[in-house]
Amino acid sequence: MIKIAGQILLILLAVAARAQTPAVQQTLEDLMESLSSEPDENSDFQEIMDDLAYFGQHQLLINSATKEEMQRLHFLPDMLIDDLIEFREKTGQIYSLYEMAAITGFNPELLNKLEPFISFDVRGAERKSKKSDNDVFVRSTRAFSAAEGGVKNPNYEGTMERYYLRFKHKSSDLEYGFVAEKDPGEAFFTGSNKYGFDYTGAFGNFKLGSTGQRVFVGDYHVRFGQGLVAWQGFSMGKSSETTQTLRSGQGIRSSSSTDENQFFRGIASQLKFGKFSFMPFVSFRSLDANVDTIEGKPFFRAFQTSGYHRTKSEIAGKDALNQIAGGAYASFSYQRWSVGATAVFTRFNAEMNRSDVPENQFLWEGKENFVAGIDWKGSVRNVFIFGEAAVSANNGKALLTGIMLKPASNAEFTAVYRNINKTYFSFFANSFTESSRTNDENALYFGFKFFPAPRWTIRTYADFFEYRWIKYTTAAPSKGTELFAQVSYAPSRKTDIYLRFFQEDKELKVTSGNLRFNQPQRINRLRLNFSREINENFSIKNRIELSLYSKLEKEKGYLVYQDLIYKPVGKRFSINGRLAYFATDGYNSRLYAYENDLLYSFSIPALYGKGIRSYFNFRQALTDKLTFWLKFAATHRFSQTGTEEPADLATKSELKIQLRYQF
User: Which helix (DSSP H) or strand (DSSP E) does residue 458 occupy?
Assistant: First the structure.
């Protein structure tokens, strides 16, 4: 009883502290800050932001939500979803967070995160008839630096502004919209883009009947199994959530992202027949590549994946390659178990003929590729197992399998084994691997999470990996390790402190004259983070982070920053900002820090050299339907002894403006 009462008190305090924080932006910040390795600003977070924004406005009915709906919260593990559903079936309606605290694994930290997105109401006719949502986003971004010398780079066709436009309609039965973007340097209503934006996409889906069937048209994502065959959009890799290694396949989703690579364009459907589900899809789209001919036959060496169309060569490669892709996913679910099968066929109108370098020796070439896989997941008591096995053309084989368990009520453990051979290749793979390409990896990951006492949390992981052939960054087969540890302490409802350690050891290529060989590289980072809610209106966050790099030479660096967040109660505006000082010996010892940004946007700049980074955010609700955001950020790098960088080229700034109209 004392333990349960203590949990309830902690939940009350946590919810009170969280009530002043915009749920979507705060959860996104927590997600990005959990990343242990270098973040990728090209990652597609649009889908997770859409889901969190939707549930922030229309809370998930936890008493009737399906497993698929709960998976769209993204931070709720499958094993806990199963436990929640089982608890709901045994006890009936859940009335509050206090009841959920009785479920093993639903600690105050997780319940605190869930609170803004869930409701304990019972689904009724009035909820089903709820009016639809319509959103229009308009955003403009402009970066400035002395190096530009004006509004246009002479090497680019267009000006340096970035423009973004999105419309989205969403209801329970129908979703549709479009998205358009112009990147910096691309033409706008002129040159190669006489009709406006360089990239445009449209999407839609509608419900069939009352059993969950849906049809998707336009742009969409597929997410099946553990990502060995097909997984598009965002996926969580190694992070401070050290035991969340399972990919929760969410089937087919409409895509409103501006990622110009990882999506399908065509038609798909999601069909359910009791415990069976079937998801066929077909896609016809164009990709960027430099297509040439040999004896009249078209070929290409590599894909162009930057998404930029600014120069003559980039524009020449735009939509030059046609791709046809099709396949299906079928699955069977029974209680806590499910098994599925995926098959994907891809064909191009030109032949992939890779350059003749050692790292390409075993990679797929040709016009066609076929990949198939079988996946499984399920649990017995406190043990959850999952995995996927796949095969591809040219005798490619891949296996990813893992186990998650709770050895005690206050502890979680996971292990993941990956064995992917040199010839395995899928265009749409995105699994829990060290390498960004799902190919040639033999690895073992261990993760552990422990709650030793109230307010304390310990998270650790270790990942051991090896490559049996040459990579682009290596000169011979190589291996490496990653180690991570984080201790968190919340002494009160208004204060949170954590200390994080990260170490990565890899062998990377070094060129010396005509010689190429692997050289061990080590990166260490140590972070101390402190955040506190001063009162109802003000919050602060402080961080000190150190970086140590060693290879042939050694580098070190550090970052110190102060955040101030002002959200006056009862007012229609909010302000936040940061002042940071950084000093590193070079780019290899660079540091990253997530920045608050416009809604549905994020920024994680690389900080290196010596300088000051600052930003200012302002949000104003102009009316009940119209909201305005502004962000101004600047990085001033000081000239350093021994460098050739001119001081007048050292300052860069960025201005972002956004309007959102809801109706």
Answer: strand 456-467
- Beta partners for residue 614, in sequence order: 579, 634
User: Which position has the token pair 């990622």?
Assistant: 259
SS3 content of the chain, % helix, strand, coil (to 5): 15, 50, 35
- DSSP lists the bridge partners of residue 145 as 652
CA-CA distance, 526 to 485, in Å (whole number)?
Answer: 10
Region at 455 (left for phi over 0; alpha for psi -120 to 50; beta for the rest): left
**Nearest alpha carbon to residue 502 among 465, 549, 540, 456:** 549
3-state secondary structure of 26: helix
Question: What pLDDT, in 10s, does the model give residues 170-213?
Answer: 888 899 999 999 999 999 999 899 988 999 999 999 998 767 78
Average pLDDT in the 354-383 region?
92
Tokens of 614: 């600052």
Distance separating alpha carbons of residues 79 and 574, to the nearest angstrom: 38
Tell me whether strands 251-254 and 213-223 are parallel, antiparallel or unpaired. Answer: antiparallel
Backbone angles phi, psi at 14, to 5 degrees: -65, -45
Q: What SS3 state is found at 537?
A: coil
Whether the Cβ atoms of residue 458 and residue 242 lie closer than 8 Å to each other: no
Give the mean pLDDT of 120-143: 75
Say whether pLDDT at 402 is over 90: yes
Residue with tokens 């979507």: 24
Is 60 exceeded by the pLDDT of residue 3?
A: no
pLDDT digits (tens, 9 = 90+) for 472-491: 899 999 999 999 999 999 99
**DSSP, residue by residue, 57-118:** HS-EETTT--HHHHHTTSSS-HHHHHHHHHHHHHH----SHHHHTTSTT--HHHHHHHGGGE
Q: How far is CA 538 from the centre of its chain?
A: 29
Residue 89: count of CB within 10 angstroms of its CB: 8
Q: If DSSP codes are grouped into helix, strand and coil, which group holds residue 12?
A: helix
**What number of residues does the chain have?**
663
> Strand 495-512 to strand 591-592: parallel, antiparallel, or no bridges (unpaired)?
unpaired
Contacts of 415 (CB under 8 A, 6+ apart): 402, 403, 444, 445, 446, 447
Strand duo 297-303 + 337-352: pairing: parallel
Cα distance between residue 137 and residue 256, in whole Å? 12
Q: Model-level pTM?
A: 0.88
pLDDT for residue 5: 43
Distance CA 498, CA 133 (A): 39
- Cα–Cα distance measured from residue 353 to residue 321, given in angstroms and rounded to the nearest whole number: 13
CA distance 449 to 568: 36
What's the confidence (pLDDT) of residue 24? Answer: 64
Instruction: Supply 461's token pair.
Output: 């992981």
Q: Which of 397, 398, 518, 418 is nearest to 463 (CA)?
A: 418
Q: Quick check: helix, strand or coil at residue 14?
A: helix
Strand pairing category for 60-61 and 297-303: unpaired
Compute, in degrees rounded to 10, the torsion defined by CA atoms 464, 426, 180, 286. 150
Contacts for 387 with CB less than 8 Å, ≥ 6 apart: 226, 375, 376, 377, 399, 400, 401, 402
